Amino acid sequence: PSHLDDLPPTMLKKDYANLPIMNSVDDVVKRLLSLEMASQREKLKVKTQQLVEKVRRSPHDNGSFEVQGKLKKGRIRTLEEHLQRHPKDKRNRRFMLMGLDRRRKMLGYLRRVNYSTFENTCKELGIQYSPPQPYTRRLTKRWMVKKALCIKVFQEKQKLQAAERLKKRREWQARARAAREQQE
């Protein structure tokens, strides 16, 4: 089932919903201008408008994090549904992953700046935020051999430096003993 299925088919398209002339138009024209005959894109416009209306702070709020998150949610959900029907569509898969990444970055920023708004936004969007994993290097045989060699070289260098430090410490101790004996 699509996330656009909950829209009533008799609802008018976004561009025609607020026109006063729509009250005096014939039923056939209303049906043509309703969501029953609308394309997927027009349905998505109506759905995102409904989602945005839920989280808007004011009638002119189009750029807050909540609104941006709702817009991304509608687009991501549509792409997910498209990819379920067309699994080999690499272009839209890339767009979906890019949208997910943008939303994750936006939520990460909101989490750092205003945690209460972040929690409310996640609850409204119905998503569970997980912070990005720390960078991990892909282990290859070549990298492991190189790392082992570096560790071995470092340990040998430490042994040589330890012998030098021991030699210098004994010299300092001998000087200190000689200086004490001269003072006595």
From TrEMBL:
Q: Where in the cell is it found?
A: Mitochondrion
What Gene3D superfamilies does the database record attribute to this sequence?
S15/NS1, RNA-binding (1.10.287.10)
The record's keywords, sorted A to Z, are: Mitochondrion, Ribonucleoprotein, Ribosomal protein, Transit peptide
Superkingdom of the organism of origin: Eukaryota
One Gene Ontology cellular component term attached to this UniProt record is: mitochondrial small ribosomal subunit
* A GO BP annotation: mitochondrial translation
Q: Name one GO molecular function term.
A: structural constituent of ribosome
InterPro entries cross-referenced by the UniProt entry: Ribosomal_uS15 (IPR000589), Ribosomal_uS15_bac-type (IPR005290), uS15_NS1_RNA-bd_sf (IPR009068), uS15_ribosomal (IPR052137)
Give the primary localization class: mitochondrion
Q: Which HAMAP family match?
A: Ribosomal_uS15_B
Q: Which PANTHER family match?
A: 28S RIBOSOMAL PROTEIN S15, MITOCHONDRIAL, SMALL RIBOSOMAL SUBUNIT PROTEIN US15M
Similarity comment: Belongs to the universal ribosomal protein uS15 family.
Kindly provide the name given to this protein in its UniProt entry.
Answer: Small ribosomal subunit protein uS15m
Give the organism the record lists. Answer: Emberiza fucata
Q: Source taxonomy lineage?
A: Eukaryota, Metazoa, Chordata, Craniata, Vertebrata
